[in-house]
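Hey, can you fold this one?
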Amino acid sequence: MLVGLVTDDVTASPRIQIANVLDPRSAPEGGIAVICGGSEQIVGRPGWRYEFRSPVLSAGGYTAKPQALLFLDADTVAFSVHLDDTESRVYKLRLSDGALLGEFTFGTSTYQHIATFARRSNGDVWASDYDTNKLLRLDLEASFSSGAAVILDIYDTTALAPYVGSIEFVTVSGAEYLLLALFSTTETGIATYVIPASLLGTSIFTIGQEFKRFDIGRRIQGIAMRSGKMMVTRNALYGTSGAVNGYIQEIDIVGAITSLPTNSRIDASVNPTYLTGQWFGPSSYVEDVAIHPITNCIFVPTEGAYAVADEPGFLALWSSDLSYEGVRNDYVLEHDGEGQLKVSINGRLFGSYNLPLSVTAGALVVGGPPAGGAGFSGSFTTAVIANVLVQNQPLSIADRNTLFSGGYELRELKAYGLTLANPGAEAGNTSGWTVELGGMTVRQATPGPFNGAYYFTGGSFVQSVSRQRLSLLAQGLQVAELDSGLMWAKVRWKQSAYSDQDPGGMGLRMLNASAGTISTNYSPFAWTLGGGGAPGPWYWQPRSFPVLVPPGTRSIDALYNASGRTSGTANDFYVDDIEVTVYSK
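Sure. Predicted structure:
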């Protein structure tokens, strides 16, 4: 539960609400949905920022399906759609305000499914066409000026038909290569070719001219180089079973080109060291991928949420830095009281929906329900929520700007960030922490740390509790504040696990001047979503737990609580980046 107007009881039935719900395709982070009564509409996935909807949703009775993407500069992109394989159009769009700056068409007779764009080191822009299995060198400036595609050169790759899909360029040891990833819905014909870029001066590619080729799986939609690694967008992984889903993978293609023999397979089981990252995309139907030239964020068009063209809001462009901290989205829900809900995200229209208001609200909730237990299982969120406004009138542009700039958040709380010793295990040991039960160790891999080089784990103990004692007076808090009854403390941490087992949490113990215990409170045990076992992937979840500071408190114990081992020998409850903050009104 993120924010909403709900009934003031344990059911928390929503009149209108934004919530993090289960994803229909089982993405571990779930989906973001707007809910009215018993009806909901998915409007995104956590970790992805909504940029804009396609400038055209349909034309001539055909649906416009986003495909290729290319950065022209830090604030301008070339964004292509195909109209049900009858025509490809390219739009020049400004990211900062979504303005349409130009467009051109490839016509209706050929090149009807432009799939990806790529730019060579010499500045040449190439496009791949899924319709003809050819690569096209474009003059973008002339194309936008004339309104029709200006094609300077054609590289015939029909030898790879019918699977020609995604392209990118990479330089390895001074040699530039064309990367050409094939698209297939089966396990047949799924190679990614490494072709000397010098061959683009010829007209026809023949199999055998490639430098190497690799098998990295099926349904590849886009590839782009980011910080020396190849980012891959795809609708499925290896194997033909299971539902189509949207994935982002990071592959050490430079290392593979340098060290692996041709025809090598790269996945979580074979040559796994070359698969260096994996995330879920903004929808099940991710398309091309492009990297922002300054922020290094990845940008991904989508052509639907859970089916092709199933939702106009997902004929769109999304972005992410792929960090554990997530991204910011600003939501505006405007209901007309007669059944129609308009959803805007980041100042851009997402969609309008028939979602009647069927519940009488009794409470405004932020971050969790009005009644019930704490934790993930109690419907509390890990998201950061701010700038909430509820009003019975339209939201003006001025009010919107004031709201999302923090104008209604007075931020009157006084916050004391307490200093912990070795809060993220970066000493390479457990120094600063005292074991009360079992043991505490540090770890470095599977998963990699959230931050730095190490994190904490419960070792091989069924139960493990450790503490770090923090003197509040020594950290600058005053007796009068501590005894006011108006203070509370919050422990924050990042949590992960080897797999979906061994839940755990953190806690806070309040102590008086004689180190006597006043209160001890633990967060609910929780598993980490999506722990992948030996092959991965793994996810770090932000968690937090607040506790009132009773009068008489002089010290606080931060408590690591790995007391929920459910299987195996190792206690695989992992914690990194522990913080404790004390707040005063």
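The radius of gyration is 26 Å. Let me know if you want another pass with a different chain boundary.
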